[in-house]
Structure formats: C-alpha cells, structure tokens
Design a protein that fits this description.
It is built from 12 helices and 5 strands. The protein has about 475 residues and is mainly alpha-helical. Strand 3 and strand 4 form a beta hairpin. Bound molecules: fe (ii) ion (2 copies).
Length: about 475
C-alpha cells in the first residue's frame, strides 16, 4: 500500500486501475490540469530542469526521491496514508462509531464545501507566486519556490481525487471549477481573501510560506481528524509535504534578517535610509510585512463565532488541532471558550459556547505555533547584538473578518481612534514606498552558489547537496 505505482499515467497508491470510471474521469481532468499549469504555473520556467523531490512512498522514512525534472513532467499523483485498521470516529456526536469510508448523504454538501475550499487554496498560491521565479535571489531559493509550487499542484490533485471519487458529477464539476477560478480575478476570484492577495516579492513569499502555509497546516491537521476516512488519510500525507513549505518561509525570513543585521553591524547603524542605501531590508520594514501577513492569515480561520464550525465538529467532519491528544470529552457540549468582543468600541473578553468558537480555538492554536518561529528570528537579531525585537501583532490588529473587523486596534492591542489609526498605519503596515523599495532589490541571481545582496546563504543545501549545487538548469 505504501509503494506508489509509477507505471500508470497517474501515479497513485489507491489502486486506481481497479476503478475504470474514476480512472477515466481523472485522466480526462489531467490534460486540463496540465493546461492550467502551462497558463498559470511558474512563468517562463517550463523548460528548466529543477532538482525536485517526488513522493515515491508514504512511509515517513524515505518517502521521497530527488532528481532534475522539468516541472510539466513532474509526476503529480494521488497518495493516501495507509488505512488505520478499524479506525473509529473520536469526536463529535458520532464518537466511537466506525469512521466513514463513504460520504453520508446528510453531510455531503458540507464535506464537499470543505474539500473545495481547501482545494481552492492550492492552485491559488501557485498563481500568486507565478512571477517570483523571474527575480529569485539564488538557484537554491528558486528551486525551493518550484518545489512548493509543484507540491501545491499535488495538493490540488489530492482534493480533486476526493471530489471525483466520492461526489460524482458534482465533484467533477467542482474539479473543473478549481481550474477556472483565478487568484485576484475580479469576476472569478479564489474563494478565500488571503489567496487573492498578491505575492509580489520574495519577502512576501517567505512571509506567506511561514504564515499562510502554516494556516494550511492547521486546516489539514483539523481535517486529518475527520470521520470521513479518505479525507483524513489524504490530508495526513499532505502534511508531510507542507512541513517543507513552512521551512522555506522560516529559514527565508531568518536569512533576510541575518543579512540585515550583518550590514547593521558593519555600518554601525539602525537608520533605515542608510540600510536601504546599502541594499538590505531594514528591520522595521520586516516587522510591517510580518504584521500584514499575520493579520491577513488569521482571518482565514473564519468568524470567531460560527454555527458552521459547530456543525462541522459535532457531525465529525472537522476536528480540532491534535484532537487525539486532548483529554476532554471530545463532544464539547456545555463547554465554553473566551473570545474577544467589541463593546462601546472597546475590546472585552466574553465567554461563549465552545462549539461555536471552534474557529477561534484553531486560530489560537495557530497563533501559539506562529510565535515560535518569530522567537527564533529574534535569536538571530539577539546573536548579532542588536536591541530590536520582532513581535507578533495582537490578534485584533487589522482584521477583516468576524467581530474584530469592526474595531481599530494597534499591533500592541490598544484600541485606537480612526484618527490615530490613520496617523500610524504607515508604521504598522507596509507602505507603497516599502513595497517599491523591496521590489527594487529583487534582481535575478542565477549563478550556482551566488546570493542576492539582501539575503544570507543557507547553512546547508537541499538533500545534503552543497549550497552551490546546480539546483536549476536553465537550458
Ligand atoms: Fe498545500
Ligand atoms: Fe503549502
């Protein structure tokens, strides 16, 4: 089960050839997917040989092999974690019943919506990142971008497999629609807000892969608990791929910081103007990018109180992060949770039924997890002896969704007037000038082992290759 059959047109470990109808449907979708990749995948790179990892098994040890591949030839396929024998539903109203191998009729619409919403983010991020290859700071980084892109493509495959196999004609139509929506398109945008934002430069890309791919991790973790077993098994394998995306983000931002600190020490200055003149990104600008990406990403968890969230949990569709490690009753009826509310323009805590607050529970778990990497970035600054610390903004800062959308809050959590917000917003969020400056640094560095001036080299290469390895052959 754990070995992947690569002799077929669509690599898979789900015995696809035994289900002719499904196989035909997916083989029909495949050229449309490839056409989407040609149109919306990484720009001007279809002919490059890229040192990519490809999944060859779902074993936690050694599941991938590395080699130079042209991206359109990447073996996108369908890989599920092995089935757990006699798996039981471990939360919600169906607690203790056997996990579902088929979709129960009464949950069909909700499950479809969950799978489509997750599936939609995958091609969206490829679209958002499609121009970045033209300004990569090194071959190493270019390769990492492409690795993230092909894996997001595979995550789309993972969701489309579920739609085709379990949702009949509706599912096939959703599969087509996933190739038709476009990130940022006015008429046919992607479903979620953050996936319609631009990723115009590499600092945004690193912030995106640190913060927004981590939202992916938390959503996938919640779905990995699902009573619908095929969804749980699919998302578990997606999580093994997701870890690399967050690594790209965390190490990318860390290397930007390291380089900035090095130049700060060389020039003995913290003056943004002098640092910019020296071609590095000043720390306050990095903080503003952080504020932007963090706040846009935490909106993805949805409204702080949501009856849908309660239904998804109670019916067993979507669990909590690490549901299995929690020691409560896994039903949560009568439990409460503290959320923030706005009263008379001020933030106050209020206690609400936990089932309705499960978006907030997941968001809070996400926030705890994000803070860890920011602390590691601060260690880099500390080690350089510089008295500056990055902070994660308050969760009410710059929100567009839920109760908090109605209130102006500073990054430190202070409620502020409209007047103060307008006076300070340029200190808190990236300005057009910041973005133009960052964009001005984005040249293209293609020689193996060379790095753009604004970013430090990584400590080691990919798959134990040297840092100056030829990760991309441009042909
Ligand atoms: Fe993904
Ligand atoms: Fe990802």
């Amino acid at each position: 089960m754990s070995t992947i059959n690569y002799s077929e047109k669509i690599p898979n470990n789900v015995n696809l050839s035994e289900d002719r109808t499904l196989q035909r449907a997916l083989e029909h979708w495949q050229p449309n997917y490839l056409q989407w990749w040609q149109d919306m995948g990484p720009e001007g790179s279809q002919n490059f040989d890229v040192y990519l990892r490809t999944a060859v098994s779902v074993d936690p040890q050694g599941w991938a092999q590395f080699g130079h591949v042209k991206m359109p030839d990447y073996r996108w396929g369908i890989f599920l974690n092995p089935a757990e024998k006699d798996r039981k539903i471990h939360f919600g109203d169906h607690l203790g019943e056997p996990a579902w191998q088929e979709v129960p009729g009464e949950h069909r619409a909700n499950l479809r919506r969950i799978i489509v919403t997750q599936g939609d983010t995958e091609p969206a991020s490829v679209e958002q990142q499609r121009h970045l290859g033209l300004t990569a700071p090194s071959q190493y980084d270019l390769r990492n971008l492409f690795q993230v892109n092909v894996e997001e493509g595979r995550h789309l495959w993972a969701m489309v497999y579920l739609l085709h196999k379990y949702f009949g004609r509706d599912g096939r139509e959703e599969g087509e629609a996933l190739l038709e929506r476009r990130s940022g398109d006015e008429d046919n945008p992607r479903i979620l807000g953050a996936f319609n934002e631009k990723t115009p430069d590499w600092l945004s890309f690193f912030m995106f892969t640190y913060f927004t791919d981590r939202d992916g991790k938390f959503q996938l973790c919640a779905l990995a608990e699902s009573a619908f077993d095929p969804l749980a098994r699919t998302t578990k394998f997606m999580l093994t791929e997701e870890a690399h995306h967050m690594f790209v983000g965390e190490s990318g931002v860390s290397r930007v910081i390291q380089r900035t600190c090095q130049v700060m020490n060389e020039l003995k200055t913290d003056d943004p103007a002098r640092l910019r003149a020296a071609g590095v990104i000043d720390l306050p600008t990095i903080q503003r990018y952080l504020n932007f990406h963090f706040s846009v990403t935490i909106d993805l968890f949805g409204a702080d109180q949501s009856s849908n969230a309660a239904i998804f949990y109670s019916s067993g569709l979507k669990g909590r992060y690490e549901e299995g490690k929690r020691s409560d009753d896994h039903v949560l009826k009568g439990h409460t949770y503290k959320v923030l509310d706005v009263q008379g323009g001020m933030l106050v805590e209020k206690e609400v039924p936990m089932l309705n607050a499960l978006n907030e529970v997941l968001r809070d778990d996400y926030i705890k997890d994000s803070v860890g990497g920011v602390e590691r970035w601060n260690k880099v600054i500390e080690k350089a002896g510089i008295p500056f610390r990055l902070t994660v903004p308050h969760k009410a800062f710059h929100r567009q969704i839920g109760t908090l959308a109605g209130v102006k809050v500073a990054p430190d959590g202070r409620h502020v007037s409209e007047h103060e917000w307008n006076a300070k917003v340029e200190e808190w969020l990236p300005t057009d000038t910041d973005r133009a400056f960052v964009a001005s640094l984005m040249g293209r560095v293609v020689e193996p082992g060379k790095f753009a001036n604004w970013i430090a080299p990584p400590v080691m290469g990919i798959n134990r290759q040297p840092v100056d390895f030829e990760y991309v052959r441009f042909n």
